[in-house]
Amino acid sequence: MRQGFDFAGRTVLLTGATRGIGRALVDALGQRGATVLAVARDQGSVAKLVETSATVVDGLAVDLSDRDASAAIADWVGANHADTSVLINNAAVMSHGRLTDGSKEWRISISNEIDVNLIAPLVLSAELLPTLSRHPSAAIINVTSGLAIAPRRDAAVYCATKAGLRSFTRALRDQCREADLSIQVTEIVMTLVDTELTAPITIRKYPADRAAEDLLRGVERGLEEVWIEKAKALRVVHRLAPGLAYHAMRAR
Ligand SMILES: NC(=O)c1ccc[n+]([C@@H]2O[C@H](COP(=O)([O-])OP(=O)(O)OC[C@H]3O[C@@H](n4cnc5c(N)ncnc54)[C@H](OP(=O)(O)O)[C@@H]3O)[C@@H](O)[C@H]2O)c1
Predict the structure, then answer these.
(1) Which of 78, 96, 143, 212 has the most CB atoms within 10 Å of its CB?
(2) Does residue 4 lie within any of the structural domains?
(3) Where are the alpha helices (DSSP H) in 115-189?
């Protein structure tokens, strides 16, 4: 039987807490009686969040594109916040462009996107398993995208990282079950949301506060996958007619 999840009293490690969906999650978690450890890159934004939000009890400014960042976060959590029982891998970057346009800028952007969107959540999940598994119940929540199911042609690397995170999340869930760990491992298949990440995209977008609320409600229901707003329709279309789903998403 599916078990629900209660955020009240939890300490939640949240990456990408300073803007967009992460910032909305801070408020939604606070309303549930959770406290947040905020991680983002910009030191000033992290400090301001700690100062201004009663929900955020501590913060760490690290660049997740640095391969040592996840170990540093885990050490910080182990030393100062061993009560952490939820990890939300939310931070990500998205670059737009065509590998076919002759520019060599992709040399930097490919590894940056892979490091932030894929390597960091994978390593952070592995690093935090010992801390999380000490609790009677815990959760790892990985934010992917409808673009993990059907890619946009001008965000090829981003889509590949999200597809990779989707696959990892499924296998990690199986590993936790096999090891009899009480860790709920949930994938959030996010819809298009109105944040800085999607500033270049001008079509209608879902508000960040509603996306955050839907995300937490799905986890509270004990779901393994939470499909947010229009991602629900994508799921159905992709099942029935994958070609149609690819066509709809490739040039959004
Ligand atoms: N918005 C959408 O339509 C949409 C759709 C599908 C999936 N998603 C997913 O939802 C999640 C949140 O996206 P969002 O739209 O809220 O993004 P956002 O508004 O751009 O915010 C990104 C957050 O991640 C942090 N971050 C970025 N690069 C970092 C780095 N190298 N090291 C540490 N922190 C870093 C940022 O902090 P700094 O400012 O300090 O860099 C910021 O707090 C992502 O996983 C994204 O892929 C979003």
Answers:
(1) 143
(2) no
(3) 120-132, 156-178
**Residue 2 covered by a domain:** no
pLDDT tens profile 70-103: 999 999 999 999 999 999 999 999 998 888 888 8
Active-site residue, 158 included: yes
CATH code: domain of residue 243: 3.40.50.720
Q: Is the dihedral of CA 178, 139, 81, 143 positive or negative?
A: positive
Residue-wise pLDDT for 134-180, tens only, equals: 999 999 999 999 999 999 998 999 999 999 999 999 999 999 999 99
Ligand 1, CB within 6 Å, residue ranges: 16-22, 40-42, 45, 63-65, 90-93, 116, 143, 145, 190, 192-193, 195-198
Which amino acid, one-letter code, is at 138?
A
Distance 63 CA to ligand 1 centre (A): 12
Residue 2 confidence class, pLDDT cut points 50, 70, 90: low
164 domain-assigned: yes
Tally of domains in the chain: 1
Domain that holds residue 181: 11-250
Q: Does 5 map to a domain?
A: no
- The pLDDT of residue 200 is 83
Asked whether 95 and 113 are in contact (CB, 8 A), the reply is yes
**204 burial type by CB count under 10 A (0-12 exposed, 13-18 middle, 19+ buried):** exposed
pTM, rounded to two decimals:
0.97
Distance CA 196, CA 216 (A): 21
